[in-house]
Amino acid sequence: MKGGVERFLVVDEEDFKLFHGDSFKIIPYLRQFDMIFVDPPFFTWVSDSKGDDKPDHNSLSYEIWKRLESGGCIYLCGTQPQLAMDWHWWARFFTFLYEKIQAKNVGPPAINRKQPRRVHENIWCMYRKKDSFSDLKITYDRITSKGTTKVVEGKAMRIWGEGKKSWRVGVGTPVSVFYGKKVDKNHPEYVGHPTQKPEKLIAEFIEMSTEEGDWILDPFSGSGTVSAVARRLGRNSVAIEIEDKWIDIIAKRVDMVKRKRSIDEFLGLEVDEEKYEEYLEEKKITEPERIVARQEKLQLFTSKEEKP
């Protein structure tokens, strides 16, 4: 690594790097990435923020552009009118592809009686201007399924087969709006971050935009959702976070994904089921005993993993 950024590196693994520091001191010396997820702190990154020490979207858009691989894409998170106000900076380097709306079940109080409450977030997908549309790696083929045909009596649906009224179900084509509860203290994924994104939403972006083995950059990592999902999906990632309190949480959260995958593989080892059943019968091992044995096996495995 150039520029002495090694001093900011706190986790250095083959598929995951975590930097503790200012993104602008680190990004210029990193590799190029297939996907970049840009979710900057709103109140300190809007262009009209006060103070000379707060970089705006002018410099941010330039640094992100330099780090994006040809054929890759970025996701820029924000709200309106912030994104519209700062679009001219991003338009210098990027072409707008589509917008994803993250609908939320809660939101901030209404600003005034002339505007509705904002219970959503805007996420813009963009690619480099010099790339042609056909060059883009992004495709929802990676997250779609063939689906099944469901017969619906008495309803005018599309016809598959003579005399049958049916429609496709289970098809994974993504839509422009993501509906999901806010990740707060009542959500199972919550780790304490005030603006934590749902893993399902991040997974959609990653699967649409990258292939296994690709590299993803999250320059404002927060609670580490992007890197945790990236590891689960077999992608590599680099996370950057400036606040001290989130570094340990990010590292542990991403490590948990690795630990869980190892446990799943360990418990899912292929065995000869017929011989296994014969062994259970021979030893007269009851179902409750089998459950206890499995728990002990899992506990033994995890205790070994936790040793330094």
Question: How would you describe this structure to a colleague?
Answer:
There is one protein chain. The protein is an alpha/beta fold and 308 residues long. The protein folds into 2 domains: 5-138 and 174-254, Vaccinia Virus protein VP39 (Rossmann fold, 3-Layer(aba) Sandwich); 273-306. The chain contains 9 helices and 11 strands. A 9-stranded mixed sheet has the order 1-2-11-10-3-4-6-5-9, with helices on both faces. A two-stranded antiparallel ribbon has the order 7-8. β10, α6 and β11 form a beta-alpha-beta unit. α5 (199-209) packs across α6.
Topology:
Layout: E1 9-12, E2 16-20, H1 23-26, E3 33-38, H2 42-45, H3 57-67, E4 68-78, H4 82-90, E5 94-103, E6 120-128, E7 148-151, E8 166-169, E9 177-179, H5 199-209, E10 215-218, H6 225-232, E11 236-241, H7 244-267, H8 273-283, H9 287-306
Parallel strand pairs: 2-11, 3-4, 3-10, 5-9, 10-11
Antiparallel strand pairs: 1-2, 4-6, 5-6, 7-8
Helix pairs in contact: 5-6, 6-7, 7-9
Strand content: 15-25%
Number of alpha- plus pi-helical segments: 9
What's the number of domains?
A: 2
Distance between the termini: 27 Å
Task: Quickly name the level 1 CATH class of the largest domain.
Answer: Alpha Beta
Strand order of the largest sheet: 1-2-11-10-3-4-6-5-9
The appropriate CATH architecture of the largest domain is 3-Layer(aba) Sandwich
Order of helices and strands: EEHEHHEHEEEEEHEHEHHH
Question: Which fold name is given in CATH as the topology of the largest domain?
Answer: Rossmann fold
SS class: alpha/beta
User: Rounded to an integer, what's the Rg over CA atoms?
Assistant: 24 Å
- Shape label: globular
Low-pLDDT segments, ≥5 res: 159-165, 294-308
Counted beta strands? 11
Helix content: 25-40%
Q: Outline the biggest β-sheet.
A: 9 strands, mixed
- CATH homologous superfamily caption of the largest domain: Vaccinia Virus protein VP39
Mean of residue pLDDT? 80
